[in-house]
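Example record used in the benchmark description.
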Amino acid sequence: MKISRCQIRFFSHPEKIIQPERCSTDTSATYQYDLTLNICKALICRSRLWTNAFCSGHALLHTLFCCIFLFASSRAYAETTATFVEEAMVMETTVTLANIAQILPDDESTRELRQLIVASSPAPGQSKQLHATSIMAALRNHPQAKGVHWLGSSVVTVHRKGIVIDQNQLQQIIADYLASQADELPQGEIRFTAFNSPSQLVLPYGEVTWKVTPSRSDILHSSIFSIYFHIDGQPVQNCTVRGKMELITDVVTTIGTIRRGELIQADQVELTPKNILILDRPFTQMQDVIGKLAKRTLPTGRPLREGDCTAPPVVSEGQFVKIIAQKGQLRISANGIAKSSGVSGDIIRVKNISSNKLIYAKVKEPGIVSVEF
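Model output (structure tokens):
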């Protein structure tokens, strides 16, 4: 086969073929693809010269076949593309290539490429930036990334989705817990006011559940509650909330001042809601105080407690009483004068009028005391 002058001139001056310029996102695959296109153009151009020089028709067919082969080979070599996006949202602890780039073709041939881990995720609710050049360099020698055509943004901002729990929600969680324990607690309105808790918590995205634990087995006297959070059944974070517990219920309160030794009347007291956790055995029923004797002066607005009043005396000081002494069938009685007051069961001093002696007797009922002998 003879070689024409144009063929010799073409192969002796390969530097005249147009060389493509690389761009910042091109790799060797892109370069080879562009170079092949230019070679094909040159071959077609030269084939025209061969035709004009009366070259064999077989040479033209051979040239066209080479162009088609080179073009198909380069397309097969550079068919996988990864286009970086500017922003991406993730929910897991790691960032995969599929999270930050659109990979084509989107089929089974690129499955392992899409699953490649390229970075750790930011904390829930936070963001971080990833540089395309760093990712490309890290994957340079990875088998799945060989021949990938990289495109798109040079920087990807990755946001991690999170669940925000604020202070109001923390207090509501504790309020719901207290409501669930209502059957085991005294009657009344239970209040918990938090004064020391995290401003907010950011949890990983998922199904949130929690468990509340009081600092004491006696819930009403617990000032600290611990909350343990779980995401999809797995523990992720816990926090402590400090506050004030209240149990609000109606207690008997004085309307005006009640003097010591005065019998308490119905118009002198009323029911007022109070925090009974800070009161010592308060009265919660009006009938428990009406008709009783004030043991001390009670100021206006005072919640009445068990030590503030007592039942009125059955025997009063200076009262004439009957003294009964009984042993078996033997029963002796005498008259006396009470030297102190007392209710049923109290031991008081009594003066025996007959003997003029002071004895100690037990109050049995109004006007009657008893002694043993």
